[in-house]
Design brief:
Structural class: mainly alpha
Helix content: over 70%
Strand content: under 5%
Order of helices and strands: HHHHHHHHHHHHHHH
Number of helices: 15
Shape: flat
Distance between the termini: 23 Å
């Protein structure tokens, strides 16, 4: 796994991808530092991370689009499968390499509040709030990178991989805003859940190429929804917007930027990262034995 990590990490800086990624993040951090801390004379450096969330829409597709897709396109994934390590070790090695690349600009940004110290004689800068936001920003990136890598495992085309990743990032970014447009009536909610369950079944079919497993998953998840809609339809009222609001990745990060350390959010970020790494392993494993 260490060899995979080193190979992947070096590959990002043998091309322009790693440099563009780091430069893009630092440019955004620098612009918001100038606007928030200097132009607005604010000592709340954590607001820089609060306002920088949109960068993931562009940065994550750039970072993850080639992670699995390029290996499949060039057929070099066959060489990886011949190594005396498991698929999980291959996936985790690639994931940790991307996480290390992502951590570089975030680590550099930690110097910014220290450099601002001479301009804050009152000592009002809260380093606890700042570095809590930094930790949450790292965890948010870890979760989103895992999602992007999973999208890359679904195709061998980098462009399609980037588009899938961008779509997933956009959905994550707008998820809480979409809740106000989602239906809250029980009938419409049942239809909404049916669509989501069908989409999940399609994803399972894409990963496993097993239509039986996909149909079983759809039936197992859809039957309880139908039963609830007939027995007690009031339970479905507002359930779809509430689910989207609960699953919103970015909303959980914003609480850190507002000075609140949310342990549940930490668990959520870690769970998303682990879950999508698992999905990637299954996707790669399916191809390994196909």
């Amino acid at each position: 796994m260490t060899a995979i990590f080193k190979k992947e990490f070096r590959s990002y800086f043998r091309s322009v991808t790693g440099f563009v990624f780091v430069a893009f993040f630092l440019l955004v951090f620098g612009l918001y530092t100038s606007v928030i801390c200097f132009s607005q004379a604010s000592s709340h450096f954590e607001y820089i991370y609060y306002n920088s969330g949109f960068v993931f829409l562009i940065a994550v597709p750039i970072l993850t689009m080639r992670s699995i897709a390029e290996e499949r396109r060039q057929k070099t994934d066959q060489l990886l499968y011949s190594l005396p390590i498991s698929t999980a070790q291959i996936v985790v090695g690639k994931y940790l390499a991307m996480l290390a690349v992502y951590a570089i600009p975030v680590a550099i940004s930690c110097l910014y509040p220290l450099l601002l110290k001479p301009y804050d004689p009152s000592g009002y800068v809260s380093y606890v709030a700042v570095f809590s936001a930094v930790a949450a920003f790292l965890l948010l990136g870890a979760a989103l990178i895992a999602i992007g890598m999973f999208m890359s495992s679904l195709t061998e085309n980098q462009i399609i991989s980037a588009l899938l990743s961008f779509g997933a990032m956009l959905l994550c970014y707008l998820m809480s805003s979409l809740t106000q447009y989602l239906p809250s009536a029980s009938g419409a909610t049942m239809v909404g859940f049916a669509v989501l369950i069908l989409a999940l079944a399609v994803i399972v079919w894409v990963i496993t190429k097993n239509s039986t497993a996909a149909w079983i998953l759809f039936v197992v998840l859809e039957i309880p929804v139908i039963i609830i809609s007939f027995v007690n339809p009031t339970l479905l009222e507002g359930a779809l917007p509430a689910m989207f609001d609960t699953l919103s990745v970015f909303d959980r990060f914003y609480s850190f930027a507002n000075g609140v350390f949310d342990l549940k959010a930490v668990v959520y970020f870690v769970t998303v990262a682990v879950l999508f790494n698992f999905f990637t392993v299954q996707s790669v494993e399916k191809r390994r034995w196909s």
